[in-house]
């Protein structure tokens, strides 16, 4: 029925715009770090308008070329964040313990918010539709059950590989933050940054408060402790993550628009719409506030992603479990 369709579409659009805002924030921070602070945050936000056109230019060459470029960006992310992981040298036993034994010592509301945010950041709701919709781009004789089964097997393998690579990249990032910044105070970092002649040392006040880290400060601290290369490599990784996020948002946006509203827009119109909505509030925060507010906005958007997950998952699981729709291919228990 029309009413739930429009509600579900609006929820997915909200997630896509949120993810687009994160891409703009991440890219602006990365550009600021790569230029050693010479390009202000609002300048970085404006530059992200240009990367939209680069994406549309690549889109002309077809889906396979775009997938290859996408793979290239993910490889950059894996290599850059992997480099940080090797540089920081976390205790592997602790990493395994953290992966398989659930615990949270002295946790309160802020930690709960972070945990909820991590779920949303890792499992983007609109990507549920993207994985499903990319199936349509493959040439399969859908009247032949054997071919469909074989295709399903390869789609399953493809999704597993994609999710495994995403999982590894997320382990790299979370572990680097935990190992490099845990129990550090502002004074510790201020001293190390001053000794390494970092131009960013002023962002850490000389007091004994516990260091609070975000993607901007994270890059700065890595640069102070492990040399300038660590800062630049971190920024390149964030930039690659942002570009891949733009692509997934545009494609999934197009698929949900076709699916829920039967509307076919050009990709140019899609990118223009979501990017315009995403850039306006981000630009205001970048001009009138500081990087703290920009990264705080990022945390809020991660929580928003988590809240959107049921709106993407429940309908998809419901339909794929209906024998009347899926016949022999309905989900098991």
Automatic annotation (TrEMBL):
Cellular localisation: Late endosome membrane; Lysosome membrane
Highest taxon, organism lineage: Eukaryota
Main location as per UniProt: membrane
Transmembrane regions: 7-33, 39-57, 69-86, 115-134, 155-178, 220-241, 268-288, 300-319
Entry keyword annotation includes Transcription regulation: no
Annotated signal sequence range: none
Topology of this chain in the membrane: Multi-pass membrane protein
GO MF assignments: cadmium ion binding; cadmium ion transmembrane transporter activity; cobalt ion transmembrane transporter activity; ferrous iron transmembrane transporter activity; lead ion transmembrane transporter activity; manganese ion transmembrane transporter activity; nickel cation transmembrane transporter activity
Pfam families reported in the protein's UniProt record: Nramp
Gene Ontology terms: cellular component: late endosome membrane; lysosomal membrane; plasma membrane
Keywords recorded for this protein, A-Z: Ion transport, Iron, Iron transport, Lysosome, Membrane, Transmembrane, Transmembrane helix, Transport
NCBIfam families per record: nramp (TIGR01197), Nramp_1 (NF037982)
Annotated family: Belongs to the NRAMP family.
Protein name: NRAM2 protein
Organism: Tachuris rubrigastra
Origin organism lineage: Eukaryota, Metazoa, Chordata, Craniata, Vertebrata
Gene label: Slc11a2
């Amino acid at each position: 029925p029309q009413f739930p369709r429009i509600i579900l579409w609006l929820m997915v659009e909200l997630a896509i715009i949120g993810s687009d805002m994160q891409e703009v924030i991440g890219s602006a921070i990365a550009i600021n770090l790569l230029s050693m602070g010479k390009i202000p945050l609002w300048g970085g936000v404006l530059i992200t308008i240009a990367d939209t056109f680069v994406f549309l230019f690549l889109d002309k060459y077809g889906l396979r070329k775009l997938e290859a470029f996408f793979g290239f960006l993910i490889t950059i992310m894996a290599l850059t964040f992997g480099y940080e992981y090797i540089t920081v040298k976390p205790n592997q036993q602790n990493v395994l313990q953290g992966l398989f034994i659930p615990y949270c010592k002295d946790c309160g509301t802020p930690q709960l918010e972070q945990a909820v945010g991590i779920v949303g950041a890792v499992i983007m709701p609109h990507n549920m539709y993207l994985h499903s919709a990319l199936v349509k781009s493959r040439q399969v004789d859908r009247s032949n059950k054997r071919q469909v089964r074989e295709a399903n097997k390869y789609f399953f393998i493809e999704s597993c590989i994609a999710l495994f690579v995403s999982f590894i990249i997320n382990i790299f990032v979370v572990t680097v933050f935990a190992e490099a910044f845990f129990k550090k105070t502002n004074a510790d970092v201020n001293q190390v940054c001053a000794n390494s002649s970092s131009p960013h040392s002023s962002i850490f006040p000389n007091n004994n408060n516990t260091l609070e880290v975000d993607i901007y400060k994270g890059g700065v601290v890595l640069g102070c402790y492990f040399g300038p290369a660590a800062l630049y490599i971190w920024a390149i990784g964030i930039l690659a993550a942002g570009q891949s996020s733009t692509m997934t948002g545009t494609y999934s946006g197009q698929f949900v628009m076709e699916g829920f509203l039967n509307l076919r827009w050009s990709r140019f119109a899609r990118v223009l719409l979501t990017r315009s909505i995403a850039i306006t509030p981000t630009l205001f925060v970048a001009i009138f506030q500081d990087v703290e507010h920009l990264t705080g906005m990022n945390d809020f958007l991660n929580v928003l992603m988590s809240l959107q997950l049921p709106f993407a998952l429940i309908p998809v699981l419901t339909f794929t479990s209906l024998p009347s729709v899926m016949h022999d291919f309905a989900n098991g228990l």
